[in-house]
């Protein structure tokens, strides 16, 4: 188990190094024209309905990414089990759990689109009406 943890840490370190930006190829920021409107820029128009929509999207995407990484870790554990029945069984359980998690996340997206098609309620661009405007 210690070897798996070390391999996972080394792999995560290599991935983070591979995904880090190359500073030598960076360009100067002189040509970037950023315009800030209002006191806090674009954040001033952020409504509660936009917050709910963003939260739903972030939670579903994060859950899918986490499930994918558990699937990846289960696959690595299976490979490193080396025929050990207990290690293979633990890896199989992790892979099964990750696949169930992915199925739940994709089902949540599918249910949201079915609700949109049937009732006209778009959860991914959710809007709250002001009190008294119904």
Structure, briefly:
By secondary structure, the chain is mainly α. Helix content is 65%, strand content 0%. The protein is built from 3 helices and no strands.
Relevant terms:
65% helix; 134 residues; mainly alpha; flat
Care to describe what's here?
The structure is a single chain. The protein is an all-alpha fold and 134 residues long. It has helices at residues 2-19, 48-81, 85-119. The termini are far apart. The mean pLDDT is 76.
**In sequence order, what are the helices and strands, one letter per element?**
HHH
Structural class from helices and strands?
mainly alpha
**Uncertain runs with pLDDT below 50, 5 residues or more?**
none
The best one-word shape is flat
Largest sheet: none
**What does the average pLDDT come to?**
76
Topology:
Blueprint: H1 2-19, H2 48-81, H3 85-119
């Amino acid at each position: 188990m210690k070897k798996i943890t070390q391999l996972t840490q080394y792999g995560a370190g290599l991935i983070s190094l591979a995904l880090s930006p190359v500073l030598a190829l960076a360009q100067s920021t002189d040509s970037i024209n950023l315009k800030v409107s209002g006191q806090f820029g674009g954040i001033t128009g952020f409504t509660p309905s936009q917050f709910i929509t963003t939260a739903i999207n972030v939670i579903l995407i994060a859950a899918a990414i986490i499930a994918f990484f558990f699937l990846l870790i289960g696959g690595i554990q299976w490979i490193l089990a080396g025929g050990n029945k207990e290690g293979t069984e633990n890896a199989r359980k992790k892979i099964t759990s990750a696949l169930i998690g992915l199925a739940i996340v994709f089902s949540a997206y599918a249910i949201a689109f079915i609700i949109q098609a049937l009732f006209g309620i778009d959860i991914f661009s959710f809007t709250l009406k002001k009190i008294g405007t119904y």
